[in-house]
Amino acid sequence: MGEDAAVIEFPYAYSTGQLSVEVWLQCASDVYLVDERNFKKFQSGQPFRYHGGHYTHTPVRISILGYGRWYLIVRGKGQYQYRFY
Q: Is the pLDDT of residue 1 over 50?
């Protein structure tokens, strides 16, 4: 029998023109805010465009101008907390 792959869920929010996210990190991490099109690229392992980068401080604040669904991707070893506004 095969093992079930872990399903990772990524938080998201809808933007009607402007969206911000604040993220509290436990350790240095990559923090990305991506639109739906680039999220699909990320999931399939393709190069993708994002807002954010690598952060060693907390909190991280990222703001975008755009519409639609935006996903938060945090890659690091520690847990994190976030809020969209």
A: no
Q: pLDDT value at position 26?
A: 95
This prediction has a pTM of 0.88
* Summary mean pLDDT of the chain: 93
Q: With 0-12 CB in 10 A as exposed, 13-18 as middle and 19+ as buried, what is 1?
A: exposed
DSSP state of 5: P
pLDDT at 4 over 50: no
Annotated domain spans of the chain: 12-84
Amino acid, res. 32: Y
Q: What strand order describes the sheet that includes 51-55?
A: 51-55, 29-35, 60-75, 12-25, 80-84
Q: Nearest to residue 26, comparing CAs of 59, 70, 65?
A: 59
